[in-house]
Amino acid sequence: MPQTLVRLRIALGTAWLSLIVGEQINADAGLGFLINNAREFLRTDVVVVGLVVYALLGLTRRGRQHDVHDPFDPAVAQDFRSAGCRRAG
Predict the structure, then answer these.
(1) Which residue ranges make up each domain of the chain?
(2) What is the rounded average pLDDT of the residues 55-70?
């Protein structure tokens, strides 16, 4: 099970990167359009804010993946049991 979740994490990372690249190349609305438009008019402050938004979205996605993956990870499960915790159900 952990190997399947690792593969899923890699696939989701690739999909996320493809989505961002696609939006940057051919966007007429959204964050990609905002960044490209700001780049054309030399608005580096807007470009930086757009990149920070992309970074925060990526960190949020990564955190949610860890929330799904960690309960199935044997090392995390061992730490969970050694702390005296029991799973519900």
Answers:
(1) 2-81
(2) 71
